[in-house]
Amino acid sequence: MPLWKVYHPVGAYTREDKHALSKKITEIYSEVPLPKFYVVVVFQEVPQDSFYVGGESVGNFVRIHMDHIARQMTSEAQKTKFFARTEVAIAPFIRDRGFDWELHIDETPFDLWTVKGIRPPRAGTEDEKRWISENRPSPRTHD
Amino acid sequence: MPLWKVYHPVGAYTREDKHALSKKITEIYSEVPLPKFYVVVVFQEVPQDSFYVGGESVGNFVRIHMDHIARQMTSEAQKTKFFARTEVAIAPFIRDRGFDWELHIDETPFDLWTVKGIRPPRAGTEDEKRWISENRPSPRTHD
Amino acid sequence: MPLWKVYHPVGAYTREDKHALSKKITEIYSEVPLPKFYVVVVFQEVPQDSFYVGGESVGNFVRIHMDHIARQMTSEAQKTKFFARTEVAIAPFIRDRGFDWELHIDETPFDLWTVKGIRPPRAGTEDEKRWISENRPSPRTHD
Predict the structure, then answer these.
(1) A100: which chain B residues are within 8 Å (Cβ-Cβ)?
(2) Are C28 and C86 within 8 A, CB to CB?
(3) Does the predicted interface ipTM exceed a cut of 0.95?
(4) Closest to B51 (Cα-Cα) out of A31, C43, C47
């Protein structure tokens, strides 16, 4: 958590672009704070003849699908802040390069998630603080 | 919204097939009515040695995963109609070619979705009507 | 249902590995019992320069995304058992090969799912028993 899947045109991004964008995405979550290693990004090239918007093939479109697990956004203020933060992070790689884009988030059940076989610690626990500071999973000590 | 991911055998579809199917899919939603540009389809080839049903590799199977965001289906009548409409749209590309298939829909939160940085208009608003008629996003004027 | 998407390093698995792992995954669900053909697994190679954890590219990481449709897990005992069963099934292909891993499940609406154009039978019905014993879909006889 989060899992970002970034569907993008073939050749849109260099290795350096993807590294830089994944760092920007990670910062959004590490500021919550959440462990950095929670942030997984999968970049996937989609050939123009396999990518359609409104029934027409597209070569300048980026579609981002996020799954959020560790936290749910319950207030409008949280959502507004998250989207503002996200748009700033991704703009240099999408809007500023002339791509169109769309993104959506699904929130999936906290209790149906494991990292390296371990059920992650609940929000705000000492276990979560340790996962953040050590940036790696370790046995959970609370129920 | 919707986002359709179509997992299919390598070489199952030509560029023309994919274009035609994406148009059929778009019609399902434009009849709601919804803006045509909401409809995103990603075709993804899956090699036979990476695609398994019931523990056996498959070369004649299409798996469709849809995310719905703009509308939720609340009545059985809506669901029945949607599936009937969908099966007709996809049959020439799947059933009539001898492929097996499975599809499912997830409904994800309306408030966790943006298009080109804009939170899309709510159902039935003047903003949504404008998005439909212009077939592009523009600033939302309601809360 | 379930749909497993397994994102893994390029070349991590042979055809035999993927076949064997998909059989192990299928057993988890056939023990419920559920029809074996419900279990769909898509393996997807992700090049190291397209796969990021915590802002760093990874070449030894497996990320599994599952969608569950036919059953929801409502008790902690069910979840604990499922994860224990799953970890045993995947360990020879992930942990024992030195890969890190993360997995999560989304539960999506039963009523928004079809197999070969048929709405699958509800849990425990005679129809479901027939689907299990015949290992193929056939017309549903209940509402």
Answers:
(1) 116
(2) yes
(3) yes
(4) C43
- The answer to whether the CB atoms of B54 and C41 lie below 8 A apart is no
Give dist(CA A1, CA A40) in Å, integer: 7
Using CA atoms, how far apart are residues B139 and A99, in angstroms rounded to an integer?
18
Nearest to A70 by CA among A2, A138, A117, A16: A2
Residue A41 contacts residue A4 (beta carbons within 8 Å):
yes
* Contacts with B42 from chain A: Cβ below 8 Å: 7, 46, 50-52, 63
In angstroms, the CA A83 to CA A89 distance is 10
Its sign, for the CA torsion C88, C92, C97, C101, is: negative
Q: Are the C-beta atoms of residues B58 and B98 closer than 8 Å to each other?
A: no
Rounded to the nearest 10 degrees, how much is the dihedral formed by the CA atoms of A129, A134, C79, B102? Answer: 120
Q: How far apart are CA A143 and CA A126, in angstroms?
A: 12
Contact A105 B109 (CB under 8 A): yes
SS3 (DSSP) at A63: strand
Q: Helix, strand, coil % (nearest 5) of chain C? A: 35, 25, 35
Residue of C nearest to A44 (CA): C50
Residue A23 C-alpha, separation from nearest chain C C-alpha, in angstroms = 4
Name every chain A residue with its beta carbon within 8 A of the beta carbon of B142.
Answer: none
Q: What is the dihedral of CA C134, C135, C140, C142, to 10 degrees?
A: 80
Using CA atoms, how far apart are residues A104 and A17, in angstroms rounded to an integer?
22
Q: Which residues of B touch A7 (CB under 8 A)?
A: 42
* DSSP character at residue C45: E
Task: Give tens-digit pLDDT for C47-99.
Answer: 999 999 999 999 999 999 999 999 999 999 999 999 999 999 999 999 999 99
SS3 C82: helix
Q: Which residues of A83-107 are buried (b: 16+ CB within 10 A; e: fewer)?
A: beebbebbeebbeeeebbbbbbbbb
- Tens digit of pLDDT for each residue in A24-65? 999 999 999 999 999 999 999 999 999 999 999 999 999 999
